[in-house]
Amino acid sequence: KFRNMIKNVYAVGFVLFIANMLVFFGVYFFAYNTNYFNTSMLLNAFALPALYTFAAYLSVNSLKKEKGILGFKDAFGRAFKPMFIGGILSMASIFGFLNFIDTDAKDTLNFQFVERNKKELTEIYQKQRSIMKTEKEKQDLDKDYQKSMQSFSPEMVKDKDMFSFRQFTYYFAAVLVFYTILSTFFGSFFRSRVEA
Question: Could you tell me the pTM of the whole model?
C-alpha cells in the first residue's frame, strides 16, 4: 500500500501537506509561548526542508525502481510536483489560519519578530561599543543605534505584518527556489547514465 502511494505524486504531496500541518499545529499547541516565533523559524529552517527532501527522494526513487531508466525531466518532475503540492496547500492553509481563524497567533508572531530584531540590534550595538576606543566613535554609534531603534517604535511597527498575502507570496517564491534546486539535484542524480 505504501509503495502504491509513493508512486502517486499527488498522494505524496498530500502526505507532505498533512505532515507540514502536523508540524505547524504541533508548534501552535505545544510551543505557543515566548519562543513561538523562534521555534517556528527553526522548524522552517531545518525540519521542514529535511521532510520535503525525504519525500522528494521517496517519490523519485520509486519511479526509478519502477522504470529502471529515468531521464532528467522525469526525475525533476517527480521530485518537484509533490513538494509543490504539499507546499502550496500548506502555505494556503497557514495563511488562512493566521489571517482568518486565529489572528492573535499572527499578532504574537509579528510582535516576537520585532522583539527578536530589536534584541539582535542591541546585541550588535553592545558588541561594537565595547571595542570602540574613542568617545566620538561611541557617540556616533549611539546616534545610529537610537535612530535604528526608532524604526521599532510602536507607531512604526503597527502596520508591519509579516504574514500578509504579499509576504506569503515572497515566502512561497523563496520556497519555490528551494524546490527547483532540490529537484535539479534529484534530476541530475537519478537520471540514467545512458542519457548523460
Answer: 0.87
